[in-house]
Amino acid sequence: MKQNEKRDCKIVQDLLPNYIEKLTDEVTNEFIEKHIATCKECRAILRDMNGEVKLEHIDQDNEIKYLKGVNKRVKMTIAIISLIVIIIASCVSIYIYNKSKIQVSNYTFLKAEYVREDKEKTVDGNVYSTLIAVIGPNGKCKSVRVVEKGYTENAIQEQYEVMNEFLDKHTNVSIINDELHYNTNEWNGLYKKNVKNNWKEKYVTITNIEEI
After folding, report:
1. Phi, psi at residue 125, to the nearest 5°?
2. 8-25: string of b/e by CB count within 10 Å (b at 16+)?
């Protein structure tokens, strides 16, 4: 036992009689109880002098310290598990992103624009359309997205309803920012070259067809 510890034991043992009689102040009580909580010798002396009466408070302090230690370990465990979950989630996200990036890189996209005259249903007499074809890895068209703008408010609603009547040909029909959007399967299965030629034959006013 170190010199300081022996000195503390001597002081505590001298104070124990007054402590038992509740003649010591709060500061002294705190010093005595803190020492007894870690000193078996002084704890035994107190037990011999006072039975278990005063040890109850000490046991409670020990229990509180134990619970604080458990709480600290639980928090540390939760923090470690949370970190592991974050790392795993990040790895999964990176994997999914890279996989989707690889999949998209295997596709090509054709884009073309054309103007169709329609003086009754449009604001300035023309419908302005954009075609975007999705070409799969095998070189065949999988789907074509069409965006049409220029319709009056009433006309675009009518077109929307007409498109929804032919769901065997048009899908994902919607109105976005006064534009009519829909998918068409008219060119599905055609090779990229044939899609280009078909567009040129069908739309006289079509402009440059480019890959994007």
Report:
1. 95, 0
2. bbeebbebbeebeeeebe
Nearest to 155 by CA among 188, 186, 208, 119: 119
Long-range contact set of residues 56-65: C-beta below 8 Å, sequence gap at least 24: 57/33, 58/33, 61/33, 61/37, 62/37, 65/37
DSSP 8-state secondary structure symbol assigned to residue 172: E
Q: CA–CA separation, 117 vs 121, rounded Å?
A: 10
Q: How far is 210 from 127, CA to CA, in rounded Å?
A: 21
DSSP E strands in the chain: the ranges are 108-117, 126-135, 141-149, 170-176, 179-184, 210-211
CB-CB neighbours of 181 under 10 Å: 18
Report helix angle 26-38 to 3-20, nearest 10. Answer: 120
pTM over 0.70: no
pLDDT in tens, 152-182: 999 999 999 988 887 778 888 999 999 999 9
> What six digits make up the tokens of 57?
């408070």
State the Cα–Cα distance between residues 1 and 38, nearest whole angstrom: 13
Euclidean distance between CA atoms 117 and 123, whole angstroms: 11
* Positive or negative: CA dihedral 95, 97, 103, 105: negative
